[in-house]
Design brief:
Length: 54
C-alpha cells in the first residue's frame, strides 16, 4: 500500500464561499504537502481535473 498513489479530494466545495475554500485548502496542503482536488459533483466543478488525475 505504501507505493500506491493517493488522491485527496475535497467534495461539496460549492457549499462554502470561495475565500473560505481557498483558506482551507491552503492550510491543509501546507500540512500534508500533497495536491488536493476540490470538486463539486452537483455543480460539476473540477470533475475533469480529477478524472485526468485518475
Amino acid at each position: 500500500l505504501i507505493k500506491k498513489r493517493e488522491l485527496i479530494v475535497f467534495n461539496k466545495i460549492d457549499l462554502i464561499d470561495e475565500k473560505e475554500k481557498k483558506e482551507k485548502i491552503m492550510n491543509f496542503t501546507k500540512k500534508i504537502k500533497k495536491k488536493v482536488y476540490d470538486i463539486s459533483v452537483e455543480k460539476k466543478i473540477n470533475i475533469k481535473n480529477l478524472l485526468r488525475a485518475i
